[in-house]
Amino acid sequence: MTENLYGMPEEIQVRADGPLRIITLNRPDALNAVNDPLHHGLAQLWPRLGEDRDARAAVLTGAGRAFSAGGDFTYLAELRSDDDLRARTIADGREIVLGMARCRVPVVTAVNGPAVGLGCSLVALSDVVYMAESAYLADPHVQVGLVAADGGPLTWPLHTSLLLAKEYALTGARIPAERAAAMGLANHVVEDPLAEATACAKRVAELPRQAVESTKRVLNIHVERAVLATLDYAMTAEEQSFRTDEFGAIVTRLTGGDA
Q: Quick one: which of 1, 35, 248, 259 has the fewest CB in 10 Å?
């Protein structure tokens, strides 16, 4: 069995392929929906990747049919009722966003299927994005009664028009792959996103390291500034939204139980 690097939980598989690190969201039976171990692991992943001096580029993808179906509804219900888990999750969300924005290693993402919620956020924070023809993006935070603190609204205005960012953030509507590319939310729509993303990452890994990493940093300073301008407000607002009656009613309906 291939060693899982960086001490990640089983929900995140990280393996070495020479100078590449292949990162796979690994809950295929749940469409890689985000639970607590996956979310907490993502908060730890990006600094550990940055500390890996043998890593020159990374490929991010999902196991099975989806990239990520967003938040696991059982996890969302737990976040409403567990104050300590909610506080850690909010802190982890902040670290995921900033950790990915600050990571020195270029991340090429292969969107092999639906990328929803946090999955959509990971795509937005990537450096190059390849999408399968049948894949789509969606940020349904508002639809389930939450503020998109770690979602598309943080960075979409850098990728696309503010009007389009508002439309898709407020409605949670799906963005098909071709539409995502036309809007600037993806680079390429291809038949085999993992193969194309891996080929791209290999090309990047062969280039002079200091030039690659410093150029990424120059570009991501824009991302980090935009994120820092909104992140603390967004996180506070999301923490509040977990406790609203509207969110509770939606989660109760989705889980078929008490929230």
A: 1
Place of tokens 């001490």: 7
Look up tokens 């898709």; give the residue.
Answer: 168
**CA–CA distance, 136 with 197 (Å, rounded to integer):** 17
DSSP lists the bridge partners of residue 215 as: none
Q: How far is 64 from 111, CA to CA, in rounded Å? A: 11
List, for residues 156-207, the tens digit of each pLDDT value: 999 999 999 999 999 999 999 999 999 999 999 999 999 999 999 999 999 9
Length of the chain: 259
E strand or H helix at 20, and its extent? strand 20-25
DSSP-derived pairing of the beta strands 175-176 and 136-138:
antiparallel
**pTM exceeding the 0.90 threshold for the entire prediction:** yes
Terminal-residue alpha carbon distance, the chain: 39
pLDDT tens per residue across span 198-239: 999 999 999 999 999 999 999 999 999 999 999 999 999 999
The Cα–Cα gap between 222 and 203 comes to: 24
pLDDT 10s digits, 58-70? 999 999 999 999 9
Q: Which residues contact 149 (CB under 8 A, 6 or more apart)?
A: 90, 93, 231, 234, 235, 237, 238
- Crossing angle between the packed helical segments 73-81 and 83-102, to the nearest 10 degrees: 120
